[in-house]
TrEMBL record:
Domain Aminopeptidase N-like N-terminal, first and last residues per copy: 104-188
EC numbers on record: 3.4.11.2
GO biological process: proteolysis
Keyword Nucleotidyltransferase: no
Domain Peptidase M1 alanyl aminopeptidase Ig-like fold: 446-551
Cofactor dependency: Zn(2+)
Family per similarity comment: Belongs to the peptidase M1 family.
SUPFAM superfamilies the UniProt entry points to: Leukotriene A4 hydrolase N-terminal domain (SSF63737), Metalloproteases ('zincins'), catalytic domain (SSF55486)
Keyword Zinc in record: yes
Protein name per its UniProtKB record: Aminopeptidase N
Annotated catalysed reactions: Release of an N-terminal amino acid, Xaa-|-Yaa- from a peptide, amide or arylamide. Xaa is preferably Ala, but may be most amino acids including Pro (slow action). When a terminal hydrophobic residue is followed by a prolyl residue, the two may be released as an intact Xaa-Pro dipeptide
Length: 876
């Protein structure tokens, strides 16, 4: 397979200044007429070559003259045309088959043919499935789009840009035109047509532009769009205040679909959302889902500047828009909710999804050097690690400096396709700081290990902190260089009081502060703190100031001290996580229990501390997940990891005590409410955690309570939490509750997804049969990505004990489904295949079985480029 390489980037030989598209829309066939106004780069002498995949060419003309058959060639997804000049207009007409498009890329049908609607998905390279075009992000054009369709079947016609007329046609047909004045890359093109309903709101930007905000959904879902509308308005206001960025069209459309390969898409003026990230109501959405809707609405909106107004020169720069936009979204969510909880959530995600990716066969730099299929690079590394890199740079510049730098970046690159060098260059120049050393973070894969050693010298009252770094090799990158690692830190005395810091060579201005950032930018470096009156406990990497793995030989008592006293909510949680991991080691090794005791004691004290925020307490009571704990094993036996983590929770529950847990559960349950405010959300979160802990030591009572909670739940959060406890405990009551849930939510696809996914959490040995039964259920289909993820994704990723069966039957089932899925939807299949990540670290028995399952996929005839690239990387 051909590899695309960053080092081989060349500016386009041909550009398009203006695109005129006319769609004659139909479910089975759609005709697309395109007129491209071409521009030739005088410095290059290449023939006109356009991308086009699976297109049925009906006619082709250049400058108004039909082209003879020998003046063009269409092969291997490229159309080559002779005779084009600078200023030429190329006109093509092609036929598409939307209803037959199961890959959900290009133009496709969402829903059943009788009442479904048509929509497009173009990022990264879907536009070439719609018409011939130089389908690369550095070709920016202005778009005029005319949609024509039967009025009854397609009453609503939408495309990106501002509306520019509409009218009737013969035979019950109608048309609508849209003009987008902002030049954009083809991946941001979108259209939607069908029977949709809307909610609207008037918005005025700070600068006085009147904008119509419109959210569209199918009739049964339009009642669940109000929360997204509020979130959109908050996002728009926030981007004006935090970044001075305003919206730039007269309308902003948002559309919900149940058939979508990922979360959502930021098409200019016409965002399209997976319904999962747009619809919300208390009866069918959990608190976590509400927060996800708010975050994704914001993320897509923020792309209007970070991605659309300033786009990427090529797909290697993907993190330029994604890492930056995730960072902006995280800042927004932190402002709207609790900053500490948000940081905990983000770091937990980074550790669960990105660290294992960076430590396995799919490891790649935030800016990859090559790819075969770009859709495989919308990864946790490009998104989440990419955001961490922006966060480090933002931290380096400080609040005002970062804003100054972002202003410079937007001003200088507006309307253009930029690179990561442009980004770091603008930020650095606006502040007189050279940020180019951070480019190394973008080019180097793998998670750095940061070691910290502290030495207290009582005679001189100094504390020397020696930091060193090391990044293990990753595929294709055996040797690593040191990176700039900002380490935010504080020191605590033995009473838990924070100490003033005086670094050698400190300026008067910074001396005496209680929190500092030191930057390690070589292999090893020592920092000496003066006037230190006793051996301190260091609180390192505060707020997770760099995406690294910290190795520091803390005594359990040191971590317990931080867990009790660190005023930084994030680092408090972090100390608890480190301590829990050490407690896990105690259980595995079985020779001592000092970490286990310290962890349980500290949490017992916090549990009984009435001043604790219930949401933070819930997070503190949650040990690291099984995937994270597995990283501590040389050879992973997922059942053993699962069993040890269960034991860890049993110890904790026993220490807090059955009656204390019971009492707390009852007092939280007495105030069950539907309200979405932070304090009610926090109480629900703690209630769920307490019930889970209770179920570890007194399943009989916990299941009775869960049943009651299920029956009386005012919200989905409480209902699903109760159901999960029943299913995980394989309670006798689970059956009736599941039957009730199914009956109640049969018509709600997003709730039904939860019905599927909760059942994948059955205890290990039982789940495979359930997965088989569920895929035979009439509500299951391999054609819907959400449904596939809610069954196979939830099982393979969230129930390691149930997926990694010692006999390999789990691997075989997934491998078989991957082959079938690949024939329908390569993007979803490739993503699902990454559930095998980490297989090389399994114990030998499972490792051999996993390998043969992956090999059976690799050997399958006619694999897509997407799935092929993933399984090949997995095996090499
Ligand atoms: N930019 C899209 C992702 C497109 C994925 C293409 N396979 C959503 C987002 O990150 O906002
Ligand atoms: Zn994005």
């Amino acid at each position: 397979p051909t590899l695309v390489r960053l080092s081989e980037y060349r500016a386009p030989a041909w550009r398009v200044s203006q695109v005129e598209l006319t769609f004659d829309l139909g479910i089975d066939t759609t005709e697309v007429t395109s007129r491209l106004h071409l521009q030739r780069d005088p410095a290059q002498d290449a023939p006109l070559r356009l991308d086009g995949e699976g297109l049925e060419l009906l006619s082709i003309a250049l400058d108004g003259e039909p082209l003879a058959g020998d003046a063009w060639r269409y092969a291997d997804n490229v159309l080559e045309v002779d005779g084009a000049r600078d200023g030429s207009v190329l006109e093509t007409r092609v036929c598409l088959r939307p209803a037959a498009n199961t890959a959900l890329e290009g133009l496709y049908l969402s829903g059943p043919r009788e009442r479904g609607f048509l929509l497009t998905q173009c990022e990264a390279e879907g536009f070439r499935h719609i018409t011939f075009f130089p389908d690369r992000p550095d070709v920016l054009a202005s778009y005029t789009v005319t949609l024509c369709a039967d009025r009854d079947r397609f009453p609503v016609l939408l495309a990106g840009g501002n509306p520019d007329g509409q009218g009737e046609l013969e035979g019950g047909r109608h048309w609508a035109r849209f003009v987008d004045p902002h030049p954009k890359p083809s991946y941001l093109f979108a259209l939607v047509a069908g029977r949709l309903q809307k909610i609207e709101r008037d918005y005025a930007t700070g600068g006085g532009r009147a904008v119509k905000l419109v959210i569209w959904a199918e009739p049964d879902a339009i009642g669940q769009c109000g929360y997204a509308m509020d979130a959109l308005e908050r996002s728009m206001r926030w981007d004006e205040e935090a970044y001075g960025r305003e919206y730039d069209l007269d309308v902003f459309h948002v559309v919900a679909t149940h058939d979508f390969n990922m979360g959502a898409m930021e098409n200019k003026g016409l965002n399209i959302f997976n319904a999962k990230y747009l619809l919300a109501d208390p009866d069918s959405s959990t608190d976590d889902e509400y927060r996800a809707v708010e975050a994704v609405v914001a993320h897509e909106y923020f792309h209007n500047w970070s991605g659309n107004r300033v786009t990427c020169r090529d797909w290697f720069q993907l993190s330029l828009k994604e890492g930056l936009t995730v960072f902006r979204e995280q800042q927004f969510s932190a402002d709207m909710n609790s900053a500490a909880l948000k940081r905990i959530e983000d770091v937990a995600l980074l550790r669960r999804a990105q660290f294992p990716e960076d430590a396995g066969p799919l490891a790649h730099p935030v800016r990859p050097a090559q790819y075969s299929e770009i859709n495989n690079f919308y990864t946790a590394t490009v998104y989440e690690k990419g955001s961490e890199l922006v966060r480090m740079v933002a931290g380096r510049l400080g609040r005002d400096g970062f804003r100054r730098g972002m202003d410079r970046y937007f001003a200088r690159n507006d309307g253009q396709a930029a690179t990561l060098e442009d980004f770091l260059g603008a930020l650095g120049e606006a502040n007189g700081i050279d940020l180019m050393p951070y480019l190394a973070w973008y080019a180097q894969a793998g998670t750095p290990r940061l070691s910290a050693r502290g030495l207290y010298d009582a005679a001189h009252r100094t504390y020397t902190l020696t930091l060193s770094q090391h990044t293990p090799p990753t595929p294709h990158q055996p040797h690593k260089q040191p990176l700039p690692i900002p380490v935010k830190l504080a020191l605590f005395d033995r009473a838990g009081q924070i100490m003033p810091l005086h670094l050698t060579d400190d300026s008067a201005e910074t001396s005496g502060a209680t929190e500092r950032v030191v930057v390690l930018d070589r292999a090893e470096q020592a920092f000496v703190f003066q006037q230190i009156t006793e051996a301190p406990v260091p609180s390192l990497l505060r707020g997770f100031s760099a995406p690294v793995i910290l190795e520091c030989a803390y005594e359990p008592a040191d971590l317990a001290l931080l867990l009790r006293h660190d005023p930084d909510g994030f680092n408090r949680w972090e100390a608890g996580q480190q301590l829990a991991a050490r407690a896990y080691d105690n259980l595995r090794e079985g020779n001592e229990t000092s970490a286990l005791d310290a962890w349980c004691d500290a949490l017992e004290a916090l549990f009984n501390d009435g001043a604790m925020d219930p949401a933070l307490l819930a997070d503190l009571l949650t040990p690291p997940g099984e995937i994270e704990l597995a990283e501590r094993e040389r050879q992973v036996d997922p059942s053993h990891v699962h069993a040890l983590r269960q034991q860890l929770q049993e110890h904790l529950a026993l220490r807090i005590g059955q009656s204390t847990l019971q009492h707390r559960y009852e007092s939280l349950a007495a105030h069950a409410s539907l309200q979405l405010d932070a304090s009610n959300q926090a109480r629900r979160r703690l209630k769920r955690r307490v019930l889970e802990l209770l179920s570890r030591i007194d399943p009989w009572t916990a299941h009775a309570q869960a049943t009651l909670q299920y029956d009386n739940a005012p919200s989905m959060t409480d209902r699903l939490a109760a159901l999960a406890v029943l299913v995980r405990g394989n309670a006798s009551q689970a059956h009736a509750a599941l039957a009730h849930f199914r009956e109640r939510y049969a018509d709600n696809p997003l709730a039904m997804d939860k019905w599927f996914s909760v059942q994948t959490q059955l205890p290990g040995e039982l789940v495979l049969d359930r997965v088989r039964a569920l895929e035979a259920d009439e509500a299951f289909t391999l054609k819907n990505p959400n449904r596939v993820n809610s069954l196979f994704g939830a099982w393979a990723r969230n129930n390691p004990d149930g997926f990694h069966r010692p006999d390999g039957s789990g691997y075989q089932l997934l491998a078989e489904r991957l082959k079938q899925l690949d024939a329908l939807n390569p993007q979803v299949a490739a993503r699902m295949a990454t559930a095998f990540n980490g297989w090389q670290r399994l114990e030998p028995g499972r490792r051999a079985l996993a390998r043969s399952a992956i090999e059976s996929v690799a050997a399958h005839a006619a694999l897509s480029r997407n799935l092929n690239e993933i399984v090949q990387s997995m095996l090499h």
